[in-house]
Amino acid sequence: MIEHRLHRLKIQITQIVVFVSCLLSLVSLGVAEDRFFEIRAKKFSYTPNIIKVNKGDVVKIRLISEDVYHGLFLDGYGINTLAYPGQEGAVKFVADKTGRFSFRCSHTCGEFHPYMIGYLYVSPNRLFPLGASGILVFAALSLALSFRKSGKAAKFKLFGLVPLDWRFELTRFKVVRNLFKNRWFPFIPIVINLFVFTIILLAGILGGWGAGNYNFGVMIVWILWWVLLMMFMVPVVGRLWCMVCPFPLIGEWMQRGKLIGVGRQKSWGLNKKWPNKWKNLWPLVILFWISTWFSGFFTVRPLATFMLLGTIIVLAIVISIVYEKRTFCITMCPVSGFMGLYSNFSLCAVRRKDPEVCQKHTLKTCFLGNEKGYGCPWMELPYEMNRNTYCGLCLECFKTCPYDNMGFFLRPFGQDLFAERRRTDDLYRRRGLDEAFKGLTMMGIFLSFFIAFQGPFGHLKDMARATTLGGYLAYLAESFLVDFIFIPGLLLLFAFLSKRMSRTKEVSLKTVFVNLSYALVPVGLAIWAGFSLGIILPNGSYLLHILSDPFALGWNLFGTANFPWTPVFTGIMPYLQVLTVMIGLLFALDLGYKLSLQTYKTVEESRRGWIPILVYLVIIHLFFLKLFCG
Amino acid sequence: MTRKTNEIIAVALIVLSTIGTVIGVFAVEKFRRGRIYTVELIARQPKYGNWYPKKFTVPYGKETRILIRNIETVSHGFAIPDLNVAAKEIKAGEVVVVKFTPDKKGTFPFMCTVWCSDEHLHMTGEITVE
Ligand code: SF4
Ligand code: SF4
Ligand SMILES: [Cu+2]
Description:
The structure holds 2 protein chains of 2 kinds.
Chain A lengths: L1 H28 L4 E9 L2 E3 L2 E5 L3 E8 L4 E5 L4 E5 L5 E6 L4 E6 L12 E7 L3 H22 L8 E2 L3 E2 L4 E2 L4 H8 L5 H21 L8 H22 L2 H5 L4 H8 L25 H11 L2 H4 L3 H21 L4 H5 L4 H8 L4 E5 L2 H6 L4 H4 E2 L2 E2 L21 H5 L5 E5 L12 H5 L5 H21 L4 H7 L4 H34 L6 H9 L2 H20 L2 H7 L24 H27 L3 H27 L1
Parallel strand pairs in A: 1-4, 3-9
Antiparallel strand pairs in A: 1-2, 4-7, 5-6, 5-8, 8-9, 10-11, 12-16, 13-16, 14-15
Helix pairs in contact in A: 1-2, 2-23, 2-24, 4-5, 4-10, 5-21, 5-22, 7-10, 8-17, 12-17, 17-19, 17-20, 17-21, 18-19, 19-20, 19-24, 20-23, 21-23, 23-24
Chain B lengths: L2 H32 L2 E7 L11 E4 L5 E7 L5 E5 L4 E6 L4 E6 L5 E6 L12 E6 L1
Parallel strand pairs in B: 1-3, 2-8
Antiparallel strand pairs in B: 3-6, 4-5, 7-8
The complex binds iron/sulfur cluster (SF4) (2 copies) and copper (II) ion.
The site of one iron/sulfur cluster has 13 residues of chain A, from helix 15.
């Protein structure tokens, strides 16, 4: 019944949307005008940076450069012009496509050149109202569904389809199992990666303080690697990167004294223990946030990328000499934190197969190690591990388990968010505010990055690249306020409302805050995927250049060294970004209500407690929609 | 394979992929430059170091290659008007090779031909042909 009514409601809403947008386009039809803009380009902004026209207008733009060569490439229209002091550029077009389009500098003009952006609005913007009604419809549907279900379902099902505890073992195939048990795997991919990173470091040093967009190091790390990480590796395989990461290789070699064979289990170094109460994500939350202070440098300056990677490599070696096992990875690697948190959403996981086999096997070789392999370097307890945060996919436990009881599983997205608490979670103070703040700061960092690097505001770019010390400090202060006060504060407010509305006495506010913050895991992944689209689509073509001439020595290895900068699909980019955000929202709604069920004692409490969180998700998604297309 | 050989192969792979790569890159580059007489010229705004080297000498009547590396963040150009040699525009991060055979002896000015900064007009140097 309800489903039927909902269906009708949906149709009605779509009709209204269609009607309103028809009305809007009618209004704008009759009044096509000639519009003229004079845009002045100066490192690294346009004045005016935002221009607005109506559909059908004939737009003329004169581009004037006030310092060096600048260009203007208009997304969606594919129009390009160049200006040079004393030589203007001009474009003329009919604004027949509606929405928000970025115009970008098309001629390398300085280190921030890839971030030199302005916005053209051609109204009516259909995508925003469409997206907004989508968000509201999804939220309404989710609410209705949550009130329909009778009682706590015995089994959670993702979107009511796949049971959340469903899993399929990939290592049941002999080939995969044998590969995972081989001591040369993942050593070989690590060595290949080592080769790539040697080129990156060399290119970074040779590239010096020059422009990043023609540098192998900068482009591979910040375009290819970052995008692959956020759009594929983490959401699909979890810490796949850690499996093949070359940074801990040298340190681990020193600890073990062997590369392939199995030497002694105890490190040859000092083998110190990291304090238990800091074996959680807190150090990583802080360190990643600090490393974002310099994003205005290392994404554009080859030498800065070199220094960042160099620091990580040296630190990884030093820490592995002093501390045991992968202490560096668990507590210090800047990217480890979000990979860990977001891996809980991923499609793949290493888990034990049969709990009884583990119980009978009293000598836990997966933790202690044996002659076949090392005890879990990430200091996990593979025999009871139920979440991905701290599993580096190093595959040692496949080698050390004498009963082949470890498996590599495919499972539904988000399974780990519902895992039971374990003893080590309390011992190491894990799965508390540390993971909540990791998720929240990632949202804040996304905001700062998106507005500064993909937005049209020149003064923000000047702040991020520290043209004045005061501006830079203000940028850092803003990022602190947003990441650690404002965004967590907003969630706290709604967590408080949620607890109030549920009218429960037994669940603490902190528990509500922490549990419901996990609904932000798919959200975080989705907005970062959207951000990544904004990097790869306009700038991916640089990769062809740097692959052919990695050291800027005039090589042409693959014949693509002179391939010009060519943005692809940037016209439909806002649509793709809105799509990713919507997918994130769907997951957040589905998983969020289940988290609410898990947090509160009764179904009634969970339903009432869910409403404020739903409102919160709607608010932040409307905001993201505004960022991407409004 | 014994354990020992395993370790040796692994170490060899690591050395090859790091030190080997670096040596390989420099060796290839050296070989590439060795075949024709080559001068490497670095282009930067006067503020950040100007042409480097500002003066250089090339042999008369022999094919010469000038490898101009713009290691900066704005475009530059290159021209030796007296020898009829020019590279239109060298974008930031780009490398341009100009090949020519000097047919006049003497010292000639060369300069940047793209407005790169306020001191653009000072971005000049001297080439000597002997
Ligand atoms: S945590 Fe960092 S250093 Fe460690 S394996 Fe993963 S990416 Fe590499
Ligand atoms: S040994 Fe530890 S880190 Fe490695 S795959 Fe197994 S559980 Fe994960
Ligand atoms: Cu520009």
